[in-house]
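B., you asked whether I could sanity-check this one before it goes into the benchmark set. Here's the sequence:
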Amino acid sequence: MSRPELTAPPQEFYNDTEARKYTASSRVIEIQDRLTERAVELLNFPDDGVPRLLLDVGCGSGLSGDRLTELGHEWIGTDIAKSMLEVAQEREVDGCLIHYDMGHGCPFRPGVFDGAVSISAVQWLCNADNSSHEPRKRLKAFFTQLYRCLRRGAKAVLQFYPDGAKQAEMITTAALRVGFSGGLVVDYPNSTRAKKYFLVLAAGPPEVMPTPRQEGDARGQGVEMEGASGHVRMDGRQAGAKRQKTGTGKHARTVFHGSKRHPEGKGKEWILKKKEQMRNKGKDTAGDSKYTGRKRKERILKKKEQMRNKGKDTAGDSKYTGRKRKEWILKKKE
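And here's what the prediction gave me:
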């Protein structure tokens, strides 16, 4: 069976017929109830009986909102599929409904929500439905505005169905880059059918990640993170970059010599990968050649050594050898 997000844009896939069929399915209702209850559990609110104001991203026909109401919370839902929202209005759900594309962000003032949930929606952002859609930009807009509308320290739990490990990493990385802390929690990681991905985020300092559920255990023991290493990778220099001081006095500087991801430094392969990413974003990028990724100083020193071996006069080597000089200086010298 083809994935819905690969079939058509959400506002077209969930037309009047599909919206009513989806809402009437007892299996869908059961799944939505279970996933919503788990999402609220991962929000980890204190057991004080105080209702919270939650944002339901991709609320659809309000099935997840019904469960939020039963759990004692108030909610506001957004969705791009107009037919789904019309069904929700007919059902007279308790939450407020807003017709909005989450790829444009979240249209709310800062710090208004105590938490956010999303059930089976975020993966739709990873598809380009028209020429103006760029998945990474839409993910950035969504997570930036989501972070903004959550109060300080509030959490967001986004359940989604990634189309492979790369898509899961792309979504997680997009969230971490805008300031969220947290990562993926995978329930029933050893089950093909029951496996569920929850992106648990906090709009503030990182906290201890919740434990996922395992087969035969309703509450779950242990931790299973997305990725072969068993952990969500946190990009940045803090992730094991090695610092080394070079020079003395006013010329002293700190140089980063590789990291856990690039122990030998960023060489030709890394440069080619980055240039390909820039081309995919439509940015002007210099062409590739046999000189791409060469370390200029080493190449110059090698050439100078060859010239000396031939008996030719060559300038001495220094710390300035191989530095790129400004074009206007070279033009003046000519």
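One thing to flag: The beta strands are 53-57, 74-79, 96-99, 113-119, 150-160, 181-187, 196-202, 243-246, 253-256. Otherwise nothing jumped out at me.
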